[in-house]
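ingest -> validate -> predict -> emit
validate: passed (alphabet ok, no gaps, 268 aa)
predict: started
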Amino acid sequence: MMQIPAEHSERRFGAVNWMGLYTLAQRETLRFLAVWTQTLLAPLVTAGLLLLIFNIAIGPGRPDVMGVPFLTFLAPGIMMMTVIQNAFANTSSSMVIAKVQGNIVDTLMPPLSPLEILLGYLAGGIARGVLIACVVAVALALVLGIYPQNPLIALVFVVLGGSFMGALGLFAGIFANKFDQMAAITNFIVTPLAFLSGTFYSVQALPPVLNRLSHVNPVFYLIDGLRYGMIGVSDSSPWLGIAVCTGATLLVGALTWQMLRTGYRLKA
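emit:
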């Protein structure tokens, strides 16, 4: 009987299954690119409508905010809000749909570690966030003449936004067993975090208590940091924002990794 050489008796990936990680990341990216009119074009239209409505409603008569026109101040906030909402939607919808349809086993059975699964899903969320940011940035440059004042810092905060909300979306997707649970998390947690974070106003205008509460919200630092990268003004230091957002991303990522490692609400 012929013996199989030891080196061919099992498939060896080394410390990281790069092929599996790349395949999962590719799947998550192609998933939203296949419906680009919904995932890329629709957010651009939504962002444009928000800017138009605010400009018509209160823009012309409102004084400058932090030394810049209100519409210029508003644009980066709406841009980041669009990024984080779509990064969250990408990972959360992918996980919930896989659980509801029963094909989550296709992700759990391959030889992927919990960290590789986490990074694969995050890659899709970050890619969607970055592409949306690029599309919105081009539109802002063409329509409003707003160009990034600090492009590298703007890119760092876009990636941090995609990472943080992508990890939070995966966490929520694992926790939720039904679509209505996912909708509740989106409506009562994600949306308030986005809207109560200085998107439409400077937090310096808030009462002291609300001002301090705003500085506990990581999304505030994401919006404030992107605002600094786009128009050069901000309520807080961008370096503090990078530190807070990195810490928040690592914390949520660690909790999500633990859920993947233990199979919480994923395995019978």
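The radius of gyration is 21 Å.
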